[in-house]
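Thread: Modeling a multi-component assembly for a lab meeting

Hi all, long-time lurker, first post. My supervisor asked me to bring a structural picture of a complex we are working on to next week's group meeting, and I have zero experience with this. I have the sequence lines for every component (462 residues in total). Could someone generate the structure of the whole assembly? Inputs are pasted exactly as I received them:
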Amino acid sequence: MRLVVAECSVDYAGRLSAHLPPARRVLMLKADGSVLVHADGGSYKPLNWMSPPCSLTEEEPDEDQAAAGVRHVWRVRHAKTDDQLIIRIHDLVIDEDVELGVDPGLVKDGVEADLQRLLAEQIDLLGDGHSLVRREHMTAIGPVDILARDAGGAAVAVEIKRRGEIDGVEQLTRYLELMNRDPHLAPVSGVFAAQEIKPQARTLAEDRGIRCLVLDYDAMRGIEGGPARLF
Amino acid sequence: MRLVVAECSVDYAGRLSAHLPPARRVLMLKADGSVLVHADGGSYKPLNWMSPPCSLTEEEPDEDQAAAGVRHVWRVRHAKTDDQLIIRIHDLVIDEDVELGVDPGLVKDGVEADLQRLLAEQIDLLGDGHSLVRREHMTAIGPVDILARDAGGAAVAVEIKRRGEIDGVEQLTRYLELMNRDPHLAPVSGVFAAQEIKPQARTLAEDRGIRCLVLDYDAMRGIEGGPARLF
DNA sequence: ACGTGTATGTCGAGA
DNA sequence: TCTCGACGTACACGT
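Re: Modeling a multi-component assembly
Sure thing. I ran the full set together rather than chain by chain. Output:
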C-alpha cells in the first residue's frame, strides 16, 4: 500500500459527477489499484474513491495545470464501468510505501443468522404450543425465515430482521400472499420478528394483520448459554 | 490526523462482536476521535472502525498481553452506544501526525433530485399533453415525486429513481393504492421513471398496470443546456 | 453473471 | 432528536 498526504483536488465522473476543491488530504493507494481519499472527519466513508478492479496511471500536467501549481496528475480508471477519478497533486507532504501482506480477515458473531437459529431453538417465543416446521422454508419467490405451526396446527410464517423496517413487512406480505394461495398451507398467519421494530413498520404490519414480535438477543443467547463476550 | 502502520489485533463489541487476528494494518485516527482499520485490499470499507462521536484512551497492557508481545492497548469508546474497539499494538512501523485542516467538502451533481427537476421541466416526456401539477405531492405516507395530469385530465403519479428496482415499484404501488381511495384524485395511474429499469421491476410494474419510462439523463440535461462535463 | 437480502451500513433531509 | 429514504451504497450468497 502507498500512503500519501498531499495538497490535491479531485474529480470523479461515473454514475454522478463530483468535485473536491484543493485541500490537504490523505490518499490510500491499495495493492489492488483501488484509491481512497480521506479527510480528517466524516466517518469511514472516504470523500471520494475508486473501488477495484481499477488501475492508476500518472500523467504530465498540461500547461494550464502546471501554471496553477499542479505537480502530478493521477488518473484512476475503473476496469469495467469507465468511472474515472482524477487526482491533481499540488504538493506531496508524505509519500510512503508499506508492505502489509494478506490480511487474515474478520471473524463475526451476532447477525441475523444467529437470531434465526435462536428463535428456531426457542420457538415457543412465538406463543405457547408453537412448533417448528423448518427454517428457510422455500417458496417460489424465496425462502421464508421460519415456518411454524401454532397450538391449533395453523401455519405461521416468520420474517426475522435485526431491525424491522417497512421493507421487511413488504417482503413478509409477499410471502403470505403466495403461501395463502397454497391449499395445503392456508390459512397462514404472519409474524414480524426483530430486535427492534420501527413505528411505521409496526403500523403497516398490524394494519395487514401481521403480528409483531420484539426479540431480546441477549436474553435468547443467555438461555442458550452461549460463549461469554470477549471483554 | 494520526497515521499509523502497525502489527495489531483488533476486537469490536457493539451491535455484533468481531475479531481481527494479529497482522500488519493501517490505522487512521481522525481528529474527531474516530478510528479506521484498513488492510491492503477490500474496498473503501475498513476491516473495522469506530465512528464519531467517540474517544480513544491508551491503556497499559496487562501481564499476559505484555508476555504475548503487546506494547500498547488503545480503547476506542463510542460516546452514546457503548460500542468499543480495542486495538492491541504489537509493533509500530509508522506513526505520523498530520495537520489537514477542515475540508471544503464535496460538490455533487447528477442525483435523483436533478432527474426530478428535469422531468418536471420536461413533463411532456410522460406523453403528449401532460401537465405538471406539482413535485413532492404529499400523501399520508409520504411525498409522491411528481403529480401530473394526462391529456384527458386524469391524475398521474410518477416515482423517480436513478435505478428502478423492485422497492421503487412497491413504493409507488402504496402511493397509488392510497391516492385511488381519494375521490378527488381517482383514478390515478402510475409511471415508474428511472435511468435504468431492472427486468424484475419492469415485470412487477407492468403486472400492476404501472407504466415504465426510461430517462436519458444526458439528453434531458442537454435539452436544458446545463454545464459541460468537467473532463 | 445476475438477482436478492443484509449491513456495526453511512448520509442527508424533514418533522 | 428521531425517522425515513437514497446511496457512486458495498457485500455475501444463491441460481
